[in-house]
Write the structure tokens for this entry.
Amino acid sequence: MKTTSIHTKLYRCLMKLYPYQFRDSFGDEMEMVFCDMIRDRNHEGKGKLLLWLEIIPDVLLSVIEQHWNKPKRREGKMSLTFTSILSAEKIGQLMLEMAAVLLVAALMTKPDPVSQIMVAVPAFILCQIVFWWMSKSRKPIFRKKSKGDSK
Amino acid sequence: MKKKQEKTNIPLNHTDFHILVSLADEERHGYGIMQEVQNRTDGSIRLGPGTLYGAIKRLLDLKYIEESDQRPDAENDDERRRCYYRLTGLGRDVAILEAERLSSVVKQAQAKRLIGLRALKPENAS
């Protein structure tokens, strides 16, 4: 039970990478599906590391897809907009983080994939939390500016 | 007009097609769709939650599927509120068109003796 909640918390952290609209619409259901997958693994007596090996590529690919599709869906035919540049920037940032984390994991650990994953996954999540915190702390500055402009 | 719209989206993405097929006989929730696809394909296609809900979002936007208010599998559901999905008329038409397209491809492969070749090979060798 305790391990399941840890896995769910980790998955919740990863879900923060999705665009807000997508998360708002499907976040709860995705979490339910993930919990069902964990429950089935427990019943089958299979390890959860294999599940994470399925989940991480799934999250990364679908995050890129959702960020890529976000501006097109919002603004119809206008594909090159400020928001699309921002999302492209976010994707670039994500790819850089992944590359850096995997490089560090490869250098710091023994050359076996399990220990590399054990380092890479928490490091990647930590990076996401730091970037999320940084972006959150920036928001009030922009809000103040916009309030000042309106006055 | 409807036919034109259907044709522009064909060939369908294979994930989208498998979801439409899984909803062809009954309404299902996300995990139900995932399990049905996995069982039907003998585990060769395993949808993760991100891929599944990305496809569901796309199919909802295209109006090929819709959310259902009914809970056909309510007895087996726990206290959590699951969302069930069902095919729309348009979605069924698109699935039929795609199935027919794939069927014609299979017929072409049969005509070229590509199907059943593995079974024939040992006989040919002897």
About this structure: DSSP finds five helices and no strands in chain A. The helical segments of chain A are 2-15, 20-44, 48-75, 82-108, 113-150. Residues 73-84, 139-151 of chain A have pLDDT under 50 and may be disordered.
